Amino acid sequence: xxxxxxxxxxxxxxxxxxxxxxxxxxxxxxxxxxxxxxxxxxxxxxxxxxxxxxxxxxxxxxxxxxxxxxxxxxxxxxxxxxxxxxxxxxxxxxxxxxxxxxxxxxxxxxxxxxxxxxxxxxxxxxxxxxxxxxxxxxxxxxxxxxxxxxxxxxxxxxxxxxxxxxxxxxxxxxxxxxxxxxxxxxxxxxxxxxxxxxxxxxxxxxxxxxxxxxxxxxxxxxxxxxxxxxxxxxxxxxxxxxxxxxxxxxxxxxxxxxxxxxxxxxxxxxxxxxxxxxxxxxxxxxxxxxxxxxxxxxxxxxxxxxxxx
Length: 309
Hints:
- The protein is built from 11 helices and 11 strands.
- The chain is elongated and about 60 Å long.
- The strands form 2 sheets. A 6-stranded parallel sheet has the order 2-1-3-4-5-6, sandwiched between helices. The chain has a 5-stranded parallel sheet with strand order 8-7-9-10-11, with helices on both faces.
- With about 300 residues, the protein is an alpha/beta fold.
- It has 2 domains: about 1-130 and about 295-305, Glycogen Phosphorylase B (Rossmann fold, 3-Layer(aba) Sandwich), CATH 3.40.50; about 145-290, Glycogen Phosphorylase B (Rossmann fold, 3-Layer(aba) Sandwich).
- The protein has helices at about 20-25, 40-50, 70-75, 95-100, 110-120, 160-175, 200-205, 225-230, 260-270, 275-290, 295-305; strands spanning about 1-5, 30-35, 55-60, 80-85, 105-110, 125, 145-150, 180-185, 210-215, 235-240, 255-260.
């Protein structure tokens, strides 16, 4: 299986990230090109024509990266061409639609966008994001000296749940004081940002008893990979409910689900003082996502979609 990787995670072969490692694992020949290359369109076509890949896996999330003409030329090489995005763009940008018409399939981490594309007669499917278990893993030697944390950026009113996320920060600071740790960009009272280093983020999560998950969208089966990184570190994930969550997770078994800020506060207080229950759910959460949400599982899912072409 020859795979050409064109995308955000094509960061060179010196320090491989999780996506790269899994693509390489499942390929007999692997080449890549980053979307930041100024000659992306020309070079990607040249690489595809020379390599003759079976799969061209693109992770392109910006309208200025690829042209429709480039996408057509990639498809003309005989490769199966897909574009996958781990983020949400709302409303769905026109360029996704234009590119989707000339490649084989567009893959999303939510079902809303899949439905939108299918209703237009454009091939689309669901492929959730993964996490790297070599980075995000439990370490029982790590002291749990943080009670509760929320790691997420503040984007003002840019997204549907941006204001709600600001409400989380304000409510939890009042309810828990210094025992609540807020991290990320855009907050006046942030204790720092982990956006530059997955290893630093993982070390931070391992210090927590409870970590909060809340994305910017209530899309069907969508959560940012924050949820996976929390659970991968063996920490109790206190996740806001979103539509379709029950298809992947079980409340009280591998995650704890909340809907309102008062419920979030109550459940955090309960699980802080019920350590055995908290540890049991956290450990089951770690087991669960290592079965269903690693990058290896993601690429296996990609290959299953490819086989059904």
